[in-house]
Design goal:
- The protein is built from 9 helices and 3 strands.
- With about 170 residues, the chain is mainly alpha-helical.
- The chain folds into 2 domains: about 90 residues, no CATH class; about 70 residues, no CATH class.
- Strands 1-3-2 form a 3-stranded antiparallel β-sheet.
- The longest helix is centred in the first third of the chain and has 18 residues.
- The chain binds iron/sulfur cluster (SF4) (2 copies).
- One iron/sulfur cluster (SF4) binds next to loops.
- The site of one iron/sulfur cluster has 10 residues, from loops.
């Protein structure tokens, strides 16, 4: 991947994610009416292409702006890695959100290093491993989440943009 290509992608996302938001939303909300399997195949293809042109270590916007969600399995695994107890881990690093989900207590994330690496990378939460959920064959089924991800994540924005031109021809 070239730095120049990546900075063009990031600038496009910065300049157009809000300007294009109505069209993006309309497109994503039209996907549930299409063949989900076909959309899934197409989005996974665009996911591979866009992530081959972008390096998350030059971005980390998800880790800087969105607290991770922790499952109970995540808590046990990360607590063991940090040589603490699940109870202590929860007290120190998490808070319950309005939906009762356990989320990170602060943004940028407590585990984000200055060079954009993650200090618990090997054991990071499942939600971090799968973000921005654009390699999921069931992509068409979650328009609201997908839309929110185009605002936070330049890769998700470009994946959806390219998917839109494929679907609309
Ligand atoms: S916001 Fe997207 S492109 Fe940026 S680090 Fe997160 S997953 Fe990677
Ligand atoms: S746990 Fe790691 S990957 Fe997840 S938000 Fe924090 S720094 Fe990012």
């Amino acid at each position: 991947m070239s730095d120049k290509k990546q900075s063009i992608l990031i600038d496009d996302w910065k300049n157009n994610r809000i300007r294009q938001s109505d069209q993006t939303k309309e497109f994503l909300y039209s996907l549930p009416d299409l063949d989900h399997q076909e959309v899934g195949k197409m989005v996974v293809e665009q996911h591979e292409k866009v992530f081959s042109e972008m390096d998350c270590l030059d971005c980390a916007n998800c880790c800087k702006t969105t607290p991770p969600i922790y499952t109970n399995k995540d808590v046990k695994r990360i607590a063991a890695f940090l040589k603490t107890t699940p109870k202590q881990f929860k007290r120190q690093y998490t808070i319950e959100d309005v939906n009762g989900e356990l989320i990170g207590i602060k943004v940028p994330c407590s585990f984000l290093n200055e060079d954009n690496t993650c200090s618990i990378y090997e054991v990071r939460p499942l939600a971090c491993r799968t973000y921005p959920h654009t390699d999921d064959p069931a992509f068409a089924e979650r328009p609201e989440l997908n839309f929110n991800n185009t605002i936070v994540c330049p890769a998700a924005y470009h994946i959806v943009k390219r998917l839109r031109s494929k679907v609309n021809g």
